[in-house]
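hi support,

uploading two proteins for the ticket. first:
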Amino acid sequence: MTTRRQFITSASAAIAGLSAGPALAQGWTVPQDFMPRLIQHGREYYAPGEVHVEPTERRLYWVLNDGYAIRYTVGIGRAGLYESGDFTIGAKKEWPSWTPTPDMIERDPDSYEQYADGMPGGPENPLGARALYLFSGNRDTFLRIHGTNVPWTINSAVSNGCVRLVNSHIAHLYTQVPIGTRAVLH
């Protein structure tokens, strides 16, 4: 059982990690509050070494070899923009650059048109500290599991389709997940 003091200490450390910059992933460990729980949804057990996103729970599970998983709270795509599917992690990038898709610019030109030529990686970038690129076969889907520069949006449906985590959590997940990993967005 986590005590109030342990929770406050863990939460303070996580919040402090949000502004830690490029050294963020070095030496990061996941607080015990985020550690294993048996993963079973209905009659299905998730396979070890897979990423699963449950949009109704707003949770991402990184499944470990022993039938347990690390659970992260995530932000997901808003209504009509969440795209379920079976993907593969085709690329990983630290402090990735970002360019809005043409659909994003068309939906909201006031927010995105100014970035049509892209934005370099860094603390102000919407992809945050790390990104896992979701591929379908050899094709980049332009969907990402990534950090965020707006951590208060976690546990809500606000993105343009990507799955977002706070920067300290994506930094940890990034070190765990190899290229080629199966990622299922349910």
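and the second one:
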Amino acid sequence: MSELKKEFENLKNYSVKWEKYFSVYEKFFSKFKNKKIIFVEIGIFNGGSLQMWKNYFGKDSKIIGVDINPECKKFEEKENDIFVEIGNQSDDEFWKLFFNKHGNVDAILDDGGHTNLDQIKTTVNTVQHINNGGVLMIEDTHTSYVDEYNSSQKYSFISFSKKVIDDLNSNIDLDLGLKINFSLKKYIYSIDFYESIVCFNINQTKSKKNTKINNKGKNHSIEDLTWQGNELFVKKFKKYLDKIPFIRLNKFTKFLKKRINNKIVKKYFE
């Protein structure tokens, strides 16, 4: 049994977690143990996990709980560096006041409202205030598939996370034709997806434009056959292609190749 799960089962205050979460917690948060860090948990409920995190990270850690319910203020233990801030995680102004008060943090766990508005607003308001090497972990992302948590499936948190993937890939020094107006690639270095969890790894020093470099080794002038393996349709349609005038052949084969290749991979997207 994991260390965190043992802590969880012996908490004096009630708490609810999904069992698979603990291994993900330890994978991303173990590096912060026994260090002077600031850890934020959004969603306090009955206060149980605040003490769990304090025990796990150690005496030098500062734990900050965030909840919209004023009753949760009772779980604050300033003498043990456990603090509680009352506010709405989907409110830009709340986060502005929060970081003005506490400064940058090392890790944030969002176990709050779980709506697309809550999770997206939390992401866009916090990533720039997480220290390099830190993480923003959004849990219970299965709510992206539950109508009552979403104004639209198109604008669910998972759809937003997929858009962030495009955003990160646009950081390469190539024109990919991606049109991204709202970008977080300046802060987010990589993303990890798990069942019901999305983790944004923050590191602004590693989020610079990705440029191609060459070494000084001998160039053997090997022919680049990148597209050779994608010509699966040629054998099947060769007798038809031989009848097409050369001028039209190149344009037509490109069109046909895309159609055939799309048909081959389509089943993997269903």
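thanks. also noticed: The beta strands are 38-42, 62-67, 82-86, 105-110, 130-139, 188-194, 197-202.
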